[in-house]
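INFO batch 0412 | record 1 of 1 | parsing
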Amino acid sequence: MDISSGLTEPVFRSAVVDDLPAIAELESSEFMSLAYPYFALRQLFDVHGSHWVVAELGGSICGYALLAVSPGGTAWLVGLAVAASHQGRGLGRSLLERAVDRCRADGIGAVFITVRPSNVPAANLYKESGFTWAGYEDQYFGAGEPRELLVHWIEPPGNGWPPLDRMDPRWRKGGHAPPGG
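INFO prediction complete | emitting tokens
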């Protein structure tokens, strides 16, 4: 991680309920109208908070990775953000790596995420971190809000986890199929 601004190294730790106001504030500033409201973050935390990771600098939350884990051995990265004043220093990559590491430690086979096709920096980060394209939907978050679906196979298909069924209609969003489909 490049913390070249002279700041101390970030502390990465599990989120606690007292972090929710700072997570909600960062969520709102980074995602504006698409931000999870506080009550939704609280409910997500009550169900999945043990898998959440925060980055802290100088006693303040400056980033987070929010995972939702399903009983079927998969997880969704439902939130990843770094405060604008701390972007470009590797915090997002570190949070993403720690989230995937937590999934690996918990025996999770795959992590899914959606990304706006126009968000090239985020898409590049995910792809450089091992995520691959799995689908596309034109109106994932409503009209004018398309998303690409990406997956990171922690345990490669064929090693105990089912392969991605490329004919499954869930992966044929917007008339597109994943590569090889």
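INFO post-check: Residues 91-105 form the longest helix (15 residues).
INFO record closed
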